[in-house]
Amino acid sequence: MAKIPVVILTGFLGAGKTTLLNRILTAPHGHRIAVVINEFGEVGIDHHLIVASDEEIFQMNNGCICCTVQGDLLRVLLQLLERRGDFDYLVVETSGLADPTVIVQTLLLDERIRLDFELQAVVTVVDGLHIEQQLVAQHEAREQIACADAILLNKTDLITPEEADDLTARLGEMNPTARVTPTRNAEVDIGELLEMRAFDLEAKREAVRNGHHHEHQPSVKTVSFVQPGDLNKTRLSHWFRSVLVEKGPDILRMKGILNMYGDSHQFVFHGVHSMFEGRLGREWEDGEERINRLVFIGRNLDGEELQGGLKTCLRSEDEAATDSGLDIYRDVSSFTLDQIRVWVRQALEFPSKTPITIKEVPCVKPDCPPIETAIMVFLENEPPRFYKIQKTINEVNFDSVYNLIENPMPCC
Length: 412
Hints:
This protein is an alpha/beta fold and about 400 residues long. The protein has 13 helices and 18 strands. The protein is about 30% helix and about 30% strand. The longest helix is centred in the middle third of the chain and has 15 residues, at about 235-245.
């Protein structure tokens, strides 16, 4: 079964999260929604939607289900898996003072959750009337904006058009990869909001300009840059590991598209704090300039230092002359790739003609090898399925593939 897409709904107190949540539950978008909320009694979901229950999970009259998070989010998510056939999307609504990166980390860290849930987007609702004061006084408001994939500038009917334009521009500077949408009473296309693929940075590539470093508050900063050139996978892996060890607690969000030497596919990554998830993206098009695009949002970030570190991962002219001597550029037999495809189809019970892409990718986890094998399976009318084996391609055997049944992404 395909993974359950997850949308995290956040925003400071009074921004309009509850209004948006009610729209998600009542709009005719054709999807069945599961909602996780912080405290059932504090959320103004229309009472006629709820069917009373002694459990933490409530059945709604419109076919959706609702849960309270008074304890452990992980436990509630596992409970929801027992009713997986009852819903298509999961919406997690945070409290106004919550740090959404905690929920992101839960979705990325736990192996069982990663098997069945996939983070789709972080949506932050902003109070257009009060956000200026909140940005000055409340670090939570700044961090919720920094973590967002989509920002709804709400209550624009209470401010002037000029003020709305200024706020839209400022929010865009604070988070250059987030789409900013002015709204009144949280009126947005709910179907489009649910179905957005926030971690596909293709739609945001123009937002990442060379050397643009935005400073808003003394502690929160956005560093975004583009860097041409081919990356050495091994050096990139070690560089990212050092960045996450040294700066992980201060990184609120990071995203990027990377160009690995000798690879026909983009490498797409995102993460929060020390949690990092990377996967194969689309193929580079013929004639397309292969540019590395990175965005870091967090506290006390040094843009020149980060870009300088990435430059140390670039393939040099000396390496170009001695490619055959480098382990990461060794030849891989087409027969080896074909054998792995056969094993994947057999072990995971895919049709015999299922297209499968196999690539070596960097891994940034300290206890993992720097280069691993990524497998992407393309099933008809479904999003690609991703798998990872903690070995290089030439080291993969049938047992490695068979283990994917229990653990498709062993370190991500």
